[in-house]
Amino acid sequence: MNFPYRSESQQKGAKGEDYFQFFVSSQLGCVYHRVHQEQDFGVDGYLELVENGRVTGKLVGIQIKCGDSYFEKQTSGGYRYVGEQRHLNYYLNHSLPIFLVILDTALERGNWALFEVGKTSPLPNQKWWIEIPAWQELRTNFREAVFRSAASVVDYAERIGQSWCTDEMLDAYGLRFIGISKREVEDLEFDNILTIMERLSKNQETLRKAHSTLDIFFPEYDRDPRMLARIPEVGQWLRRSVEIRIPWFYFWSTQPKSAGLSLLLQACCTYEIVHTGQQEIVAKYENRELEQFFAINFQNLNAFMERYHLEETLNEQISEKIMEAYRRMLR
User: What is the mean pLDDT of residues 96-108?
Assistant: First the structure.
């Protein structure tokens, strides 16, 4: 009779997976997600870890082989598991730990090994083998190994709460003062300021309210008699920030007493101090350097706004505020 045929190997494979799914549920208290056969390229399923009844989202990959033949190729320490070269590459590129499991036909024996390329050996015809130790039994030490191989389970509730609290604090103030430590300056580190900008960019509403709201100070240099932007390491930090495309023009406050815009200008451009008859101090800048300063910082502004799909009209508003603030400085 002409019917679709289910081969013996298919029957064994299905039998092995059915048993393993039952074992995971009943003995480990975890969840097994089977991969449909047409999507099986080297992993039969994924074991999801459950800890104290809580499904953690942590996964490991499982490859199952069922049949007495997998126990016939014995080594001095266990059994020889033979794989193909394509699966070697697949496992090495996989983002999860991969466990290799062998079951006998009667489902009375089950052994496992965590795939580690350092424990493989080559075979002819694009094959390799790894030892599955006899002492690594499914029923005795598999659960411990699975939980050990996955990254630690973390309760992120407290971290999320702290993060939201920080966001609320940032939202609560119209002007935010960001302190830069001496260590950050000397190490040319920008993680702190970038993290704050990322928080302020988490959605379009927050980002639109955040423009022109940041100012900067360097508390550990307060007693230094030199002009802040002319302290070599501070000037270098500010110039480097422009080079790595920090969008200062978007975030800097344009209020008259804000320090950020003036510090940036003084760090990036050479100037001379002129005293007027009324003892006022006027900074004279070179036109060529001013042009370069505005060009690169407006490029950074444009790139940032394009990245977040902010409208041109907002760009124009911010640019006008920036230029008005600098016109006041350069009079």
Answer: 93
- Strand 271-275 relative to strand 127-133, pairing: unpaired
Angle ∠(198,202,207) on CA atoms, nearest 5 = 85
47 has pLDDT over 70: yes
First to last CA, the chain: 98
64, exposed or middle or buried, with CB in 10 Å at 0-12, 13-18, 19+? buried
Beta-bridged to residue 131, according to DSSP, are 80
In eight-state DSSP terms, residue 67 is: S
Residue 168 has a pLDDT of: 56
> What pLDDT shows up at residue 8?
60
Bridge partners of 272? 284
How many C-beta atoms lie closer than 10 Å to residue 71's C-beta?
18
Tens of pLDDT, residues 68-87: 999 998 999 999 999 988 88
CB within 8 A of 131, min separation 6: which ones?
75, 77, 78, 79, 80, 81, 113, 119
CB 192 within 8 A of CB 178: yes
Share of the chain above pLDDT 70, in %: 84
What SS3 class is residue 261?
helix
